Amino acid sequence: MAVIDACIRSVMAQDCAFAVEIVVHDDASTDGSVEHIRQCYPDVTLLANNPNAGFCISNNRMADIARGDFLLLLNNDAELLPDALQTLHDYATGQQTPAILGLPQYDAQSGSLIDIGSHLDFFLNPIPNLDPGETEIAMVSGACLWIPRVLWHEFGGFPSWFGSIAEDTYLCCLARLQGYRVEAVPRSGYRHWVGSSLGGGKVVENKLRSNASRRVTSERNKNFVMFMLYPSPAFHLILPVHVMLLLAEGAILALIKRDFSVFTAIYLASLRTLWSNRGVLRGERKRLQTTRRVSARRFFSVFRAFPHKFSLLLSYGIPDIR
User: Fold this and answer.
1) CA neighbor of 36 nearest in space, from 27, 26, 22
2) CA–CA gap between residue 200 and residue 190 (Å, rounded)
């Protein structure tokens, strides 16, 4: 409850010249958060769900009832700096065309800058952008993602079958495919207790730490995004290479850790899911590519060629997967 308190209070404390509506989706929590929010924040619109619906469905439900012209998706483990909403609103209303926007992300524990949005490599691994001069990026984190409501509804929100993880990658890649910009606003920002919502996905004691559940969902959903949204002919070149690299990565990790379940439970499982969902994915690909408005060259203009996993390996060694 201390986490959600800090999040809500950071929104209520915003120094901005417009009305703000706060919608919270409680996804089957068991710590008394529902009662706490109802008692302490009567002006907050609370949606309580049981059983757990997942991150994508939760955000879709909140966006459906939100009344503002703009939506800010904000994780419960994130805290806005006091001028965050005004900064985003000023930037958004100064744009000629709608865009997805993000803010500088700071580690809540250390205060250090994590990123100002991210670039992507061709295998959809986020590469932190630390240059405030690079405003056009590949994606912003779903922990704090600003989007005009009209754009959200044009895209249809998050795919409900994603569950969680890489839904922000999907939304940002779809925006770029349709000719909309994804931009980092290099002012203000938010503090983020990285990993406190889903666990893992962060550096601990100079080692990248994650868990098997997060890894399989991440690889699965990145496969989905690539299949649906990568423009041809790049799609037909990159996907086979991506599959071979995933199999090689899984096999090497399994050998190093002397645990074959790493290969089967994460890497092979994610590829099996890609195969079993190929019919649905083909239908979605046909639908989304038909309305595509940019060339493959333009789509990939903010991507980076060097695989980011190699950089992480050089910096932190073999990841700790639990």
Assistant:
1) 26
2) 20
